[in-house]
Amino acid sequence: LAGTVPEEPRCTVERADTSLTYSLFLQRFAFSRPVILGGVTDNSAFRALCTREKLLAAFGPFPVRLSTANTYSYRKVDVPFQEYVEHLLKPQDPARLGSDTLYFFGDNNFTEWGPLFQHYVPPPFRIPGTSPAYSFGIAGSGSGVPFHWHGPGFSEVIFGRKRWFLYPPDKTPHFHPNETTLAWLQHTYPTLPPAWRPLECTLRPGEVLYFPDRWWHATLNLDTSVFISTFLG
């Protein structure tokens, strides 16, 4: 599936650059709508440590916890990182349910992975009264997490491209919680009237998406991707 998962026709998420100040971020986006931030971080050093070769050399024998790629990810499976990369990191099977699809994102052992995260430069903005927590992920083309919501946060692509779909808290998307994002894009998305289309965009390396509290979102990796989120809890 590499290269066959389409990008959206046009990005409908607002973009901002380094001219966005913290006060304007709080005023315009922090509590109301998502925004894509460009040029606000330089993670070239972190990216250099996230190549396949470097990650396998540093973390190959360590276990990683995989989650099922459905809205309610209750099943967890522990495998060595090398086994995940060499045997499970592959394009999404369009016919496979979310409960049968394993996804590496979020459940990291900070004793082992902490030194890597020390090299990550997080986005410069915060929400008052919150503290950041990192979630690191690697996934194959066509994979992703279906619609869900939680607290506010940022997500940055390190390698690959990642397509996002977002709805505000008062507009619940139509989806099946055990359907993968790829299946939803193929079957449900084309039937949506224009008024029910989500906000959407594709993130590329170095771009950061901010999503506010309780916004519905689903993700779809267009390539084999490495990504990291900063959740504000």
From TrEMBL:
UniProt xrefs under Pfam families: Cupin_8
Domain of life: Eukaryota
One GO location term (cellular component): nucleus
GO MF term list: cis-regulatory region sequence-specific DNA binding
Start and end residues of each JmjC domain: 99-233
Annotated signal peptide: none
Entry protein name: JMJD8 protein
